Structures
1.
Amino acid sequence: MGHPLSQVLQRRGQEARRLALPAQRRSSRGKPLSSSSPNFKSIVTEAAAAAGFDLFGIAPVADSAELKHFPSWIADGHAGEMKYMEARNDQGQLKRASLAHVAPWAKSVVVCAVNYNTDRPYSTQVQNPTRGWISRYAWSREDYHDAVLRRLKQVEAVLKHAAADAHSDLITRSYVDTGPIVERVFAKYAGVGWIGKNTCIINQKKGSWLFLGVILTSLDLPPDSAAPDRCGTCTRCIEACPTDAIPAPYQLDSNRCISYLTIEKRGSIPEELRAGMGRHVFGCDICQDVCPWNRKAPITAAPEFSPRPGLVNPALDWLAEMSTEEFRETFRGSPIRRTRRSGLRRNAVIALGNSGERAFLPILEKLARDEDESVAQAARWALLQFQQDTAAGLSGTLPL
């Protein structure tokens, strides 16, 4: 038997030639594709399913209310040090504020999602003080950027093949967290899910453990309906955030988000936020772990998203003292490389300070003299936490 995608290519190529798009069939090569072809939408959905996507839909390119708020979010400094979020075109316009600023040729956005949930416990269910937490999305055996992009390219190939059969031009661009586009906004308007109060995309059946990928296309496809908001009066994600990174529903201050602090933030982390980080060393899942829509979230069928050995609840002392070579080998092809060895060790040392485990004192005393100043400074802070706990304990035993 042939590969499912090969079968789609063959079947859909025959369909495009046989049925559809008579107007395109009569046109000469180089003409734009028909703006009202239901067959191309069918091609997209069948190809997305064959590529292994769990959810998919079509979003219009019109600027939504969410995108109109993006410039003020940037102006208020909520992007922190993520300067790429502030990228502008030659006219000085924020690229992510409108597709027209970067891809004026785009007529539709194909949004695809794949479930990455595994059968391992949530962070809120793990209490071992000697172990850290790596965000669920980063456990995978393959970097999700590569896994999702590979699927998108398969869908793209089907589209291009069908366009070639119709003797028409087609422009496409595929992105997985790498392009100047706010994926979750288009996911909402493609019907993939609604934007929750924690700013994550949530699907009624799949939950929020979803990787998103988008294909910008010059095809003018009939859009799907936007997903209705089903958060209701629930505020569990807001209440559960230990660093108060969700100041109001549907708003996120990256500067206070544990994911931002442990992955994007370079150098020293503000002291007032360190205790709230708990034992998180790369990313954070709390606002998703407590979401009622994830109570029955299905387990992924994609083998590449199964956890690598040692990344679920890793030993904090191992991470804090990890060598350059060990970091390189352990996280080869992993998104964890984004935080760099320095950042991962810094995060692990802060987690040691939050652990309450006095067995870590010798390690912290050693790391307080580390050549990496961000690690050394975090170790000195961690030692201070133990000293303060000891002082508090002693004062509690004194007679009144």
2.
Amino acid sequence: MNEINSTVNPGTVGQSKFRQIMEGEKTGWKRFIWAFWALLGPGLIATLANNDAGGVISYAVTGVQFGIGFFVPLVICLAPLAYTIQEMSMRLGAVTQEGFSQLALRHYGHFWGYYHISTLAFENLLTLITEFIGMTAGLILLGIPLWLGTGICLALIVTFVLLTGYWTKERVALLVGALNAIFLIIAAMTHPSMADIGHSLVAWNLPAANQDNITWYVIATIGNAIAPWMIFFQGSGTIDKGATSQDLRLCRIDTAIGCIMQVIIAAGIIICGAALFGQMQDVGSAGPADLLNSFDQVVGRWPAILFGIGLFNAGFLASITVSLSSSWSIAELFGWSKSLNDKIAEAPKFYAIYIGSLVLAAFAVLIPNLPLNFIAVITQVIGGILMTPLLIFMVLMTSNEKIMGQYKTKLLGRVWSWAMVALLIGLTVATLWNTFLNS
């Protein structure tokens, strides 16, 4: 156990605002409020950011295609899956004080270390392109041209790194994540039938006319609940926050809150889409502009504008977290400075990866005739392929007593974790089958 604790970076922990709050002199209810405020962080941000622009579009299209019925209860049931994965990532980071890529390299060799980083960087770049597509769609609805909207989005996301310290950046990201609640407001504005929602939670009914392509939407819904970058982001974010093994209970609460909020908001987005049930043609190929125009025509101008704002916000938060997952992981693998407490001059390579990936994605969006639908599909496929080895290594490492000490996963936890791995392997196979062999 002493060997594990010796890996903690005293400098990082010492300057941690989180650590200062947890070791402060406040007592009673004041300490409880401060502790609750301080514990919110990587888990909540990672899970809320997983409702990214692509996920929002996918959930909304699912609602348009199937209504409330089957998919609202399905997405709510995905919270345990997301929690299992994110808790392992958090625990691995808090106990070892090392990120996933460095642990994979040290314990399983250079091939796997570089494999995880190279595939993550490529998949993250494709993901960032989809985020810019979603963000600019909301601005275009307001009459802003694509090139200007892309520039505005890029400037806002880059500005994030100019903020001072990890704590400030984390609080801003939490505020941006809280704006995801706008989709619950929009869902209420569509005046859904509470009786139908309650019935869907019990009956799980599907519209008989739309069952031919249900397999694809089930795969997409489950795939939207998790993403490779979430693992890298939460593990590294936990370390940068200053959390250690003594904070596992608080970090689990943070992760659980995030997983619950993620599925509630995802269900709200499906309900938003359900307001357009039977109102859109060629739903399967619908993009951001199609959804916003349909909201404008069917539900009203204000819900359409709010949905565009929500889409922008979802892409904005995801762009920050996806870029940071690349920056943390690559910088860690090569031994570069990588803390958000560092200024740009103190960690130039870390911030160069962050800004460079955003610039590449922004320019890619401006390429004429970009195959947006193909990018969305291939991003999901790559994400599924990447998740399988990630989870296998994560279960192995969190179950290894030499790595985790007394915090290793217990027997029942290992059985559950391997069941999740088996589920996601099946999901990956089904995705490949439906994408390339059954199309």
3.
Amino acid sequence: MKRIFVLPLLVAGLFFNAQSIGNSPYAAFGIGDIKYDNTTDVNAMGGISTAYIWDFNNNFNFSNPAANKNLELTSLKVEGANENNFFKSNYDNMSVTKHSSYLSNISIAFPLSPKVKFGLGYQPYSSKKYSILSKETFTDGTVKANLFSGEGMISTVQAAVSYQISPEFGLGFRTNFYFGNVYDINELTYSNAELINGYETKNKTKSFNFTVGTAYQKKLAADRKLTLGGTLTFGNTGKLETQYTNSTYFYTTGQTKNNVSIVDSKFSENKDLIPLGFSLGAGYGKDAKWFVGTQVDYNKSQIDFITDPFANQASYKISAGGWYLPNYNNFRNYFSRVTYRYGAYYEKGNLSYMGTNVNRFAITGGLSLPFENKSASRMSGIDLGVELGQRGTLENNMIRQNFVNLKVGLHFADKWFNKRLYD
């Protein structure tokens, strides 16, 4: 069974009851808004991670678990995100602003040996929070009210291991465990009716999939290097359980359903929750000074919860970015030891409406600010990132979403878990 939404109705309802929209109306489709598994520093570089090997020894790359040959310290990260969305539609030329904040990453990583590195982390995978009310008044004075609402989140816990086969070539493996619940309901009632008709969808998931990665870095001159990388995400071990219920009821004080009568109820399972995808990247840089890279990500279409005039399709993303570090050994000038990050991306989204794709593009930037007067190889500090972009279009009465997303992270790195050689 599929959910059917009409985008002009979403547009109208978005502005009629805008205060209850949590993030984006596009979260009403499928399992919600997908959150990229990027840390603050990677996000500030446009999302390039597949061919990104940090020059120093205090950072772990979860996106490509093979790109961690330099990690020698325990790395602990705690990060948060603040999303600021500005919606606009040609429907009466209306606009709305929405904000949300959430914990975006907790991770720890450390070397098991000079060749083997291990990381464990938590991140949100998708989120859904919206409430859209549409009203229509007929000539006889009867009012028809239609409420679309949804909430919930799917999270992921990741465990990654890297193995350095040679100084140039590394392999990596990451397992991803997804868990959580997302919920949608469409409630219809009339002003002269005593009961509400509610069509409810509850999705519950516990699922595994896997990512394999490879990374190759070659010294081209005394201080220059070329980096190549690739990842493949595959396999769905687990399932998405979906319970559909069509019922009638009315609300009492405290929004408690009363006199519930089930009209129809169905249950289904789907194993294709997380789409197969791959990423290819390349980068070039100067040791401890600068780096620039680019990558292409591709994902097959996700579970199809929707039907005409919508389409669920494969998506791809093209990213470019890098970093610049003026002089990590200059202890007289603090800003010489700040890492400056920059990037941009364009994404062809997986959702389209009447042949019009819901695409996204953005420019990004950020800083890594060290805490102490130590070299970058032992750098603990604050990571800051900003993302400015646009999603969707005003064509076909659709919604254009401008966004300014802020990220902040605390990064601690030191020699933990090491055995003492001397007392």
4.
Amino acid sequence: MGARSCLIMPTDNNFESLRDGVRSVVSQFDSRYWQDLDQARAFPEKFVDALTKAGWLSALIPEEYGGTNLSLVEASVIMEEINRAGGNSGACHGQMYVMACVVRHGSEAQKQALLPKIASGELRMQSMAVTEPTTGSDTTQLKTFAQRLGDRYVVNGQKVWTSRLQHSDFMLLLARTTPLAAVKKRSEGLSVFLVDLREAVGKSITVRPIRNMVNHETNEIFIDNLEIPVENRIGEEGKGLKYILDGLNAERILIAAECVGDGYWFVDKARDYANQRVVFGRPIAKNQGIQFPIAKAYVNVEAASLMRYEAARLFDAQKSCGAQANMAKLLAADASWEAANVCLQTHGGFGFAAEYDIERKFRETRLYQVAPISTNLILSYIGEHVLGMPKSY
């Protein structure tokens, strides 16, 4: 884990030692570990702690704040390897992209106070409260409001799909600071705040866990007169959406990498089973009806991986990467979902047995057709902002 690498088109050969290092940690958590967690609907505390202690979750934190100052390209390889080994990065990926907002847009005081403790594992900040029940993906319509009263803001509102909050010490909160009717552009008037959950939960923040299809800790939260010091606002008042979107590009790229990891895992599982499973006196991998879908799934995962690298390269160069981040997420999510279906079909009835892990990973990778941004919204973004077609919504 060294200094920031050169911005070149990556290949697997560039990251052999990086991959080996991640695998050495992830390999300590076998199939039984993940199956037991899934059955108990429990958070992988030991897994997240091990990755933190090894330094992998501080990859994007600069060295002067205790991190390893890796590129997003390299961080994406870390996320890919976790999923490729059969794990689930959803429990820890927030630690990568949530604090990226502080790294890029926080004050020096905020960086000094938080980043070294996040890097060491003393603090966790892997939760971000953006989405609301009535607005969904239409972020500019947020109703949660932060009113400035002297040296503090008083916040009231409601958020949903706020993940990993129960296992975080700090959270990013996006709230409106100027009424929508008073701004010139819909994207203005929103601000980002650092919220100390240790003080707020159970007092001004009420948490309602949402049981969901996968073992993923996510919540609906109710905010009642939450007081936030002015110094906990990130950047300028009213410019928060821009800061959040910067972090969301990193999120989409990292999740694309996770989908790539899932895709490789499914392809490997399907290939190995097809080579070993003998029916009618021959391995089923000899049948083109089995072989061709696996090969096609592999091709699509490889292509998605390249798009991920390109998006991450542009992000690291601080160039516009919204289109590439969205395309990487769409291609990788589609590729992993295709590979999941192929893997399940190849295994037949055994694919539904929990001991094979396929049904668990199948559920996990299905999420990325919907979150953190749905496939249809990505296509509408490309249609309008890349291809110049009329706004479709």
